[in-house]
Amino acid sequence: MGTLAYIAIGSNLANPLNQVTSAFNEIGNMPKSRLIKKSSCYSSSPLGYKDQPDFINAVVSIETDLSPHQLLTELQMIEISHKRERPFPNAPRTLDLDILLYGDMRLDEPKLTIPHPRMHERAFVIFPLQEINENISIPPFGDIAKIAKGLDPENTKRITL
Question: Which residues form the 7,8-dihydro-6-hydroxymethylpterin-pyrophosphokinase domain (predicted)?
């Protein structure tokens, strides 16, 4: 099959744990794609706009024959099916799906940047990504273990289900 891609999943509204676990299945059912691995779920404090509930986050790896833009469209359709709204930046959300990495592609366009531009700053992305691939390198920042060591784990906790 096609390209190995990593997708971040987050939710803090309408039963977030349910939203995230439902997204695992829906991502696995996208056309021309196959779910390879899913991380544990993690709870994290909100960034930016603080007056909102904590988030539940996870990361999945998929193999896909979709182009990055087709993949983005499929992920946005899943978000819409979960009643995702975007009233303002960093607003609470039922479901947020972000392409973190797509093979070794680098892309910088108004609607899509790969690798995800802020992933290396976010423990709630790096910790679950490291869980499913401890040897991954994130361009241009390098080895994930080194990135993870530089992040504060204080507000990102693995959830035992």
Answer: 6-133
Kind and range of the H or E run holding 10? strand 3-11
pLDDT digits (tens, 9 = 90+) for 130-141: 999 999 999 999
Number of alpha carbons in the 13 Å side-chain half-sphere of residue 1: 15
Peptide bond preceding 128: is omega within 30 degrees of 0, i.e. cis?
no
Sign (positive/negative) of CA torsion 152, 111, 64, 139?
negative
β 33-38/42-44 pair status? unpaired
Between CA 101 and CA 7 the distance in angstroms is: 7
* Residue, of 43 and 160, whose pLDDT is higher: 43
Q: Which residues contact 26 (CB under 8 A, 6 or more apart)?
A: 78, 81
